[in-house]
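Cross-check.
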Amino acid sequence: MTIYMSSGAFRTRSLRGVIDESLRLGVTHVELSSGLEHEPALDDVVRAGMKAGLTFLVHNYFPAPAEPRVLNLTSSDDEGLRWSLEHCRRALDLSVMVGGAFYSLHSGYAVALKAHQLGKPAEQAEAFKNSHTDRKGATELMLRSVRVVADYAAQRGKALVLENNVISPVYLARSPANPLLMTDADEIVRFMADVDRPNVGFLIDMGHAKVSATALGFDPNAFLTRVAPHVRALHLSDNDGQEDQNLPFGREAWFFPRLKEFRGIPWVIEAYELSDDAMRRQLDVLREVRA
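Predicted model, tokenized:
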């Protein structure tokens, strides 16, 4: 089991800044994730970080494009879907370069989100409260898209890992239809049975699971037990159960007693914008479990 620090945990949105801060703090494993700025000299900067001793995973919207786009493997827009598939191929090529076992990304959604709406559930709900949500059609499109990307990943010797989405009570209070795929265990288990690709698995975001459990009325521990056979990585953060806040976690977190069950896979600290001391405390808490 290896502990990674999400790039979102650092107080910089620059890839060069994340690398410098990692080296300063003695963080050796970093997940390169959404929120980082576009870096024109990406490959050179990443190679410099590797040469300095850093190990990377590639996640979701990284590498960021020069102009904001929406990454969605269930996009009903042909150009949007084409770009999303090409982004995944580029991210998998980067995963090969850094030696990561997989590339991970968020599961799809059955609405046409715009870039400025990402991470804003209230705004999303208001925009789509009167829209038709075709979950079946979106799931079928996600299956097709994931198979395409998974086959490319297999050719490169890599896995494709999907993250459970988060649906919040804030969203459902304004729009009763859930457009986000893979928010509950039934959908994840069924998807894994249908996708028919051995190199596909799930990254379970514990913060997402906590909020979705509140919104949909399920037990997060029961959720984790059901999806456990398909889990290849974990995202770790805490929240109030109402919104995905990416807060630091402690031993009181709902998932903490379950971590030992997943000691053979990567754990990613995904609490955001941490101070130096907070980052060290998060690492210390997890190292206790690893001991």
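The mean pLDDT is 93. The CA atoms of residues 71 and 83 lie 8 Å apart. Passed to J.P. for a second look.
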